[in-house]
């Protein structure tokens, strides 16, 4: 057997979801990665939909969010295994197109979640209004800086539709609403925490007069937070992140981060599986499902609605 296929087969066995009950359709759910808390919340939502709609969830993802080829191979293996539907968070908006095309060729419905995919015949896109998320981050930055200052952006990675939309929304809002604020630096963290921390350190080292710092996804927000702490500039530079993890919530509570733009990954996972199952039942599915976006500050921690959003699947 080809060594690569053997390795991917092992990944499938290791990462598989709810198991395959006889007589229940299996829906494959393939995230961009499996390490971030964001993806774990998507899995919880997918599994809830599986219970409600009477299907089994086969959950498997690449080892990190840059490996398009690995994600495509995992999808190919899922399609060959007899899944009845596919829920996909595409790593790249164009390079991941083959996954959807291969599924369509087999008559398997595809729901896309989290990030847009440039492909025909997709059931739905269940995702955040990411441009709005970037707008919310920029408006909060502008408010806290009084409309003046220098800011930097720790980007996610090239080709990720969701994060590129956030970053565009941030830039456009700063330019149009806060002409007194200049974006002085942008660097890619490539969706890796360690890389994001290093890029954050480099930016802070170059800009001793930085007033604000925005991280456009979970790992970038982590990089902003740790870099600010390590540089002794926590609380002195306005830090705003995107997504949540326990470390980021701790950073928000302590004041290193001033706000987090929060998605609803649990709902994404749920709606992706629900769309596939409704399609298999012959029901109509909306082409776009907005899963919501919320700005969370320290003051809002503890609100019941915010707690439900931050800790999905509990209760």
Question: Could you describe the 3D structure shown?
Answer:
46% of the residues lie in helices and 17% in strands. It has eleven helices and twelve strands. The chain has a six-stranded parallel beta sheet, with helices on both faces. The chain is an alpha/beta fold. The chain is elongated. The chain folds into two domains: 3-128 and 264-290, Rossmann fold (3-Layer(aba) Sandwich), CATH 3.40.50; 130-262, Rossmann fold (3-Layer(aba) Sandwich). Mean pLDDT is 93; it is low at 1-18. The N and C termini lie far apart (45 Å).
Q: Mind telling me the C-alpha Rg?
A: 20 Å
Poorly predicted regions: 1-18
Percent of residues in helices comes to 40-55%
Order of helices and strands: HEHEHEHEEHEHEHEHEHEHEEH
Side-by-side strand order of the widest sheet: 2-1-3-4-5-11
Proportion of beta-strand residues: 15-25%
Largest sheet geometry: 6 strands, parallel
What is the domain total for the residues? 2
Mean pLDDT across all amino acids: 93
What kind of assembly state do the chains in view correspond to? single chain
Q: Output the structural class.
A: alpha/beta
The number of distinct β-strands equals 12
Alpha-carbon distance between the termini?
Answer: 45 Å
CATH superfamily of the largest domain: Response regulator
The CATH C-level name of the largest domain is Alpha Beta
- CATH fold-level topology of the largest domain: Rossmann fold
So what's the overall shape?
Answer: elongated
Q: How many DSSP H or I helices?
A: 11
